[in-house]
């Protein structure tokens, strides 16, 4: 087998950690000796052993003289776990093949340098694009300290996210909705505006087996979330954070008693300051957010520059009338003032389409 083929196995292993490693990366490692895979491992859970150490621990024969294929540059610092470069050097591994370089300032090429300086042959950049894509969220978070934000919405072919009576269940079919739940498993948090809470009373949990729930965030400037909203009454199954500008402790109390967390933020143009919210979330280890806002919150988020990717599900239906659209707010005057997005990646979920575009910063 070739380097690329072994790296593909390491990539598949890395994906098994999806949803459980945040805010750390998904990493997989394969150890090969005399053309045979003798050990495999992946990073299973945040704070636990790294992929390299798991692969070494799983070796069925001595790794001395073997090659290690790892999707991310091995770390050379002591964090919650000791440096993986130490484990590699102690094991007698002779060659290390790497997918992505680690942009973590504590690593940043120093892992590769250290291995080389100790006489290990290092090959980097094997399946680099795939390895980088797997950890897009980690790369953003470790470099910016704020979460990677995707704005997600489902609309009809005439651009409506609800009918004229405000109903929106359901626009897309089951296959597309399953993909939405996979994202809820993977992303650390999900965020809606209080308008959506009042209109739809959403639960915002992940309904897949062996999954985890994202932190549920409500942008609620004046603290208008009803105390009987599902997001308030179900804090036993998933955490809820109310982001508000209301400083009245008496108003906070019933939400706190119901198990919600409250984050008080400054106001900007009549709403909570979303940039401050992102900084506060980053400090709480939240590396990624799905924004399931209504049109107003989506507009504010775009204007504040916090959106990294737009996910548009399109169902082959037409609603007509005055139903809501995904991005509302004040809008722009002239097409040259538009928010620009990258060429969309397209995928199909039965009859529905998903378009994914990165927001281009000018
Ligand atoms: C992981 N899993 O498999 C690899 C990581 O605090 P620590 O000790 O867990 O170190 C976290 C850093 O280690 C992380 O930011 C990344 O730079 C590096 N590699 N991390 O969680 C792994 N290989
Ligand atoms: Zn490590």
Automatic annotation (TrEMBL):
Its EC number is 3.5.4.26, 1.1.1.193. It catalyses: 5-amino-6-(5-phospho-D-ribitylamino)uracil + NADP(+) = 5-amino-6-(5-phospho-D-ribosylamino)uracil + NADPH + H(+); 2,5-diamino-6-hydroxy-4-(5-phosphoribosylamino)-pyrimidine + H2O + H(+) = 5-amino-6-(5-phospho-D-ribosylamino)uracil + NH4(+). Substrate binds at residues 168, 184, 204, 207, 292. Transmembrane segments: none annotated. Zn(2+) binds at residues 50, 75, 84. Pfam families: dCMP_cyt_deam_1, RibD_C. Its cofactor is Zn(2+). GO terms for biological process: riboflavin biosynthetic process. NADP(+) binds at residues 154, 170, 196, 200, 221, 294-300. Keywords: Hydrolase, Metal-binding, Multifunctional enzyme, NADP, Oxidoreductase, Riboflavin biosynthesis, Zinc. Converts 2,5-diamino-6-(ribosylamino)-4(3h)-pyrimidinone 5'-phosphate into 5-amino-6-(ribosylamino)-2,4(1h,3h)-pyrimidinedione 5'-phosphate. In the N-terminal section; belongs to the cytidine and deoxycytidylate deaminase family. This is Riboflavin biosynthesis protein RibD. It comes from Lacrimispora celerecrescens.
């Amino acid at each position: 087998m070739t380097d690329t083929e072994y790296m593909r196995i390491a990539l598949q292993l890395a994906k098994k950690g999806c949803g459980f490693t945040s805010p750390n990366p998904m990493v997989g490692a394969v150890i090969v000796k005399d053309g045979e895979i003798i050990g495999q491992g992946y990073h299973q859970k945040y704070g636990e052993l790294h992929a390299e150490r798991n692969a070494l621990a799983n070796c069925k024969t001595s790794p001395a003289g073997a090659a290690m294929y790892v999707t991310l540059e091995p770390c050379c610092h002591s964090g919650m776990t000791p440096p993986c470069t130490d484990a590699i050097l102690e094991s007698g591994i002779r060659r290390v093949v790497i997918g992505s370089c680690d942009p973590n300032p504590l690593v940043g090429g120093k892992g590769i340098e250290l291995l080389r300086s100790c006489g290990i042959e290092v090959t980097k950049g094997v399946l680099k694009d795939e390895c980088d894509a797997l950890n897009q969220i980690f790369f953003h978070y470790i470099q910016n300290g704020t979460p990677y934000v995707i704005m997600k919405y489902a609309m009809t072919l005439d651009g409506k996210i609800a009918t004229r009576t405000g109903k929106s269940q359901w626009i897309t079919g089951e296959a597309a909705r399953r993909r939405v739940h996979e994202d809820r498993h993977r992303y650390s948090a999900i965020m809606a505006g209080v308008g959506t809470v009042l209109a739809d009373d959403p639960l915002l949990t992940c309904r897949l087996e062996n999954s985890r729930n994202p932190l549920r965030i409500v942008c609620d400037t004046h603290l208008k979330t009803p105390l009987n909203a599902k997001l308030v009454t179900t804090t036993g199954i998933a955490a809820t954070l109310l982001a508000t500008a209301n400083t009245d402790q008496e108003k906070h109390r019933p939400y706190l008693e119901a198990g919600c967390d409250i984050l008080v933020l400054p106001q900007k143009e009549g709403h909570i300051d979303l940039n401050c919210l992102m900084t506060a979330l980053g400090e709480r280890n939240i590396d990624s957010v799905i924004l399931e806002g209504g049109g107003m919150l989506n507009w504010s988020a775009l204007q504040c520059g916090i959106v990294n990717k737009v996910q548009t599900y399109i169902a082959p239906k037409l609603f007509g009338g005055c139903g809501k659209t995904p991005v509302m707010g004040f809008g722009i005057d002239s097409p040259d003032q538009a928010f620009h997005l990258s060429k969309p990646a397209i995928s199909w979920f039965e009859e529905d389409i998903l378009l994914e575009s990165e927001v281009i910063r000018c």
